[in-house]
Design goal:
The chain is α/β, with parallel strands linked by helices. It is built from 9 helices and 9 strands. It binds adenine.
Amino acid sequence: MWIGIVSLFPEMFRAVMQYGLVSRALAAGHLDIRLANPRDFAADKHRTVDDAPYGGGPGQVMMAEPLAQAAESLAARTHTAPRRIYLTPEGRPLNQQVVEELVVCDSLILIAGHYEGIDERLRTNACDDEVSIGDYVLSGGELPAMVLVDALARRIPGVLGNAESLAHESFTAGRLEGAHYTRPRLWRGETVPETLLSGDHAAVESWRARSAFKRTYERRPELFKGRPLDAHETTFIEDLQKGGDHA
Ligand code: ADE
């Protein structure tokens, strides 16, 4: 997957590009990330990229042209037409479903804004999509772009090994992950659930399913909306309501 990023602070992307999973995806050639700074496309010697809003009011607005040229310089470096995404709190909320939808794109351009926002004409003419990482306002789109890059990288085929299997992870099956334990068996007086030590694979699988179900039911019951519960899940709920489940 090819990702171009338009940002006033390209250096910030070292945080994801030099460490962990994204750096591995880059090194293995699963991912290619290119950066462009709108300041390099400013028309004046002060490298101005923002100006006061028409109509007055506080703050500055990022001008359309330097952003457009930065995005176009990136698009010229890829063979497929990139999907251009502006990161903004007004965008559609990012969730695993949106990640799955975007990861099939051959190329993306992520536009990180600053100040009070960007000129509306760039949004309507040079962006295909707008994405928000949550209902809170950050000072710029760099962190949201990094969040999206990380979430995408781990879904690119070949990036995660079998050991990091996706089969049970949160949201893949429309529910949260359950509890995990590792050595030591006794930690500060608290032991590991007996079933996990039993060596009985079927019992372990069932314990994990119940643990995941319980967590989802207690924390995010709305994740069950829109799909019918199977027989096991109905039994889990009955157990939970009776207070009889210890997963
Ligand atoms: N830019 C500023 N805040 C943001 C958010 N919550 N999501 C995406 N982009 C943003």
